[in-house]
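Lecture 7, part B: from sequences to assemblies.

Below are the input chains for today's worked example.
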Amino acid sequence: MSKILIIEDDPLLSKMYKTKFSSEGFGVETAEDGEIGLKIALEGKPDFIILDIMMPNLSGIEFLSRLRQTPVGADVPVIVLSNLSEKKEMEEARRLGVKEYLIKSSLTPKDIVEKVRGYLSPNEEVKQVE
Amino acid sequence: MSTFVDDKEFKRLAVELYKKNLDLFNANRTLTILQKLYQIMAATFKMEDLSQQYIDTIVSDMQFLSGAVVVKYPEDNFFRVVGLTKSRPNLESLALLGGNLSDIKVSYDDEKNVAVAAYKSRKRMYTDRLGDVLTFVEDANEIGKIEKITGIKSTVAYPIIFGARVLGSFLVSMGVEEKQLSPTDNQILGKVATVFGVAMDRIMLYQNLQRVNEKLKELDAQKNEFISLAAHELRAPMTAIKGYLSMILDGDAGKIPGTAIGFLKEAVDGNDRLIRLVNNMLNVSRIEEGRMVYQMGVVNLKQVARSVFNEFAVSAKDKRLQYELEMPESLLDLVYVDQDRIYEVVANLISNAVKYTDVGTVKVRLSQSSPHIIRLEVIDSGRGISPEEQKRIFGKFVRLESSAGKTVGTGLGLYISKLLVEKFGGRIGLVSSPGKGSNFWFDLPVKINS
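Predicted structure of the full complex, as structure tokens:
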């Protein structure tokens, strides 16, 4: 069972993604901001991280730059899932080695599960979702 | 035959000639001053600049000793000194009073002041006491000193009037005590006062416009910020609605009856439309405020066209439309644009054509009338657009009556497309007539291969 960490400050969305991923057989942990997310990421060593950008305490970008400096977090695959579509954040996130920068409102939970599955088992053919 | 003129007649003629000559001279002087004043008016929109140049011109052309201008803005309860001739004695006197012209304020109630009296009575006022000019100076000794430095013996104040409103006064001072200026000087000053009124009013109007304009810009910025914020806040709950609806439709909550599926699909469509609207609103304010960051690069327009064309092939097939792509191989199709944005423009045009055409064809065509320009056209056999509607169609939040009932658009797509195409140095337009379909096109400059 793959462990994923969802870092998302909106409880409505966090709960929804957790429900979906759990029902698809993932082990799910959630964090409501970057600070808590970093703690869980370093202790729990998730296989995959789904990361929001606009969050209190520690933003998604700040979380990423700290995570990448740790031995545990240097290579964890991360997908950014944000409703912020500013180029500045997108570029910074890409520079910090995220797999993709996705806009929440254009994807369903199923789309996201498929994306994550694709990255966790790269040999499997995955339908590309825009 | 010669005419004999006797001595008396000759003198009369000489006197008359002299008078005429003097009249001409005075008329010429008046015209010269007025022309200077008009030139100054045309060259400045600043109250201080205008007043200073006006009083300098009046004093030097009419050989007064000194001059000053005061103005009263509607929101003030005092007069501001906006001009003072910069002679050495004047500057010395000003230094005695603290040195700053803008610090001097004359109270609106100070009716002893000759400038205030002229303003309130709307009449020319005369004084031979400098104290009536410098009413804001309390120390009589100081006034005495200034009198000595400047040599001013008398002052005349003229109201500056435009239409029904008095805007200020101007003063000219002389080194002699005389109750009356010459009739000519009086005449000239009267005309000068009229021009002054026009010029001052013009500046006040301009200042007012500027203030209103600043205020509007501020409000507009606040509005845009509000839209951005609201739009962003709307996205989270919309995402949740979209997510849960899709989970129900995917069967995550178990089997649901067919009618419910139909209803849920309607809900999904509505929510998707809301998401598009919010995204477009965010994009519009980004483009309008110049906050949009463009990833400019050399893009192959043929590839973009093909890829967007393929994206809508399924919808076109569902509607049984004849769906064609015409793209000569020889085209020079490199354009300098933001790839995602030009994709958005093409998608917008094709999606509109497919959406609003019920029967017939939708054709996408790339062509080139010169090696410097490439044109993309989306031609449909839909119901066409009336000339009146064509005028409005690229505007903000415009949705056409002819599309009512079936539209799921946001009214922003073509507006955004126009902003983007123009941003990339191109043009966008349409050719259409009711019943004959529409041809939406845009031209982009071709990037020549280096």
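Note for the exam: Residues 7-210 of chain B form a domain with the Beta-Lactamase fold (CATH 3.30.450.40). Keep this in mind when comparing with the next example.
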